[in-house]
Structure formats: C-alpha cells, structure tokens
C-alpha cells in the first residue's frame, strides 16, 4: 500500500494564539493565519490529492480553500476537534487554577461536558478508514485541528489515543503519515514555514 496521509493543521486563530482550547467555537483565522494558509498553498503547489477531507469548522475550510483545495474538499465530520466541554475557550492555566491542580491537562483529566480522549481515538480510526477506502496508492489531504490530528497520528502507528500528547503540532503545519513496507510510520512531522 502506498497511500500517504497529509495532516494539515489550520492557520492561526486568536484562540490558538492565546492557548485557549478551541473546538466547537468557530473562531476565524487571523491575518497571520491566512498568510500561513498562503504559505501552505506555495508548499503544496503541484501536489495532487486523490482525496481532500476537511473538518466542517470554518478555520479548517478556509485554510483548505486558501491552500487551493477548496473545490475538491469533502466535509469529514470525524475531523472535528476534540470537544473540550467546559474547557472550551479557556487556557490550561485557567483550568489548573479552576481546579487548583497544577498538572491539569486535557490528556489526563476528565473532560466535563466534552469527549473522552478514547472517543476521539475512535473518531480518528473512522477517519483513517474513510481516507484509505478505495485507494491503493495516492495522497490524501486532511485539513483539521491540532488535537484530532495528533490523535490520528497516534492511532495510525498503533498508539492509544492519549499517545497524541507526545506530538506537538504548530498552526499551518504539514505532517505526513505513510508506510515502511507494511508498517505504518510517521514520515514527516510538524513541517512549519518560519
């Protein structure tokens, strides 16, 4: 199998800049975020994708459009960001203060009113299955968000969903998942443009 997945994180938003957890709130790209999407367009120029899947959120769809793949894109609900529940719009620092817990993290603490990390892993598995469906080779672009893409990478290489905490991912970055013979591997990670 020679299918390669391109994980493309949307450009910067005000909340990604501040470190606020952003999932279901549809925050637009900043001017810098749109510039990063233009840099993605230049970086991906000439790349042909067999499929282009995007999160339904505006920041991912706009990044996809600016990068030049908007007309080919299909909305993939499974690429929605992790539902952070009560943490939505709050930084890790704010959540640590709220619970008086200096090591609070979405990766290790219950997400009140949101999704468990394992559930996000199940969604990521479904995205992988749909991305590969009907293909034996080619490239698939996935335009989405930091945590869902980190979890997707973890699931690709056989880690539990919480293994996504091991992969940092900048805004407007490109990572690729591929194969070494029959073994799934991370081919490149967190390719930025600065």
Automatic annotation (TrEMBL):
InterPro entries, sorted: His_Pase_superF_clade-1, His_PPase_superfam, PGM_Phosphatase
GO term, biological process aspect, one: regulation of phosphorelay signal transduction system
Organism expressing this protein natively: Granulicella tundricola (strain ATCC BAA-1859 / DSM 23138 / MP5ACTX9)
Name of the protein in its database record: Phosphoglycerate mutase
Source organism phylogeny: Bacteria, Pseudomonadati, Acidobacteriota, Terriglobia, Terriglobales
Ranges annotated as spanning the membrane: none
Catalytic residues, chain numbering: 10, 81
Residues at which substrate binds: 59, 81-84
GO molecular function (one): protein histidine phosphatase activity
Record-linked Pfam families: His_Phos_1
């Amino acid at each position: 199998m020679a299918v390669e997945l391109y994980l493309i994180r949307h450009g910067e938003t005000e909340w990604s800049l501040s470190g606020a957890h952003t999932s279901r709130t549809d925050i637009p790209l900043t001017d810098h975020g749109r510039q990063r999407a233009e840099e993605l367009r230049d970086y991906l120029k000439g790349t042909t994708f067999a499929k282009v899947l995007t999160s339904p959120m505006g920041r991912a769809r706009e990044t996809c459009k600016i990068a030049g793949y908007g007309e080919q894109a299909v909305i993939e609900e499974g690429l929605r960001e992790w539902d952070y529940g009560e943490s939505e719009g709050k930084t890790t620092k704010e959540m640590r203060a709220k619970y008086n817990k200096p090591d609070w993290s979405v990766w290790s603490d219950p997400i009140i009113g949101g999704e468990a990390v394992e559930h996000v892993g199940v969604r990521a598995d479904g995205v992988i299955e749909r991305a590969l469906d009907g293909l034996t080779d080619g490239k698939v672009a996935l335009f989405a968000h930091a945590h869902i893409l980190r979890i997707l990478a973890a699931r690709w290489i056989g880690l539990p969903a919480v293994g996504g905490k091991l992969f940092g991912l900048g805004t407007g970055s490109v990572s690729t998942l591929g194969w070494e013979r029959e073994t799934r591997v991370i081919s490149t990670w967190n390719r930025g443009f600065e």
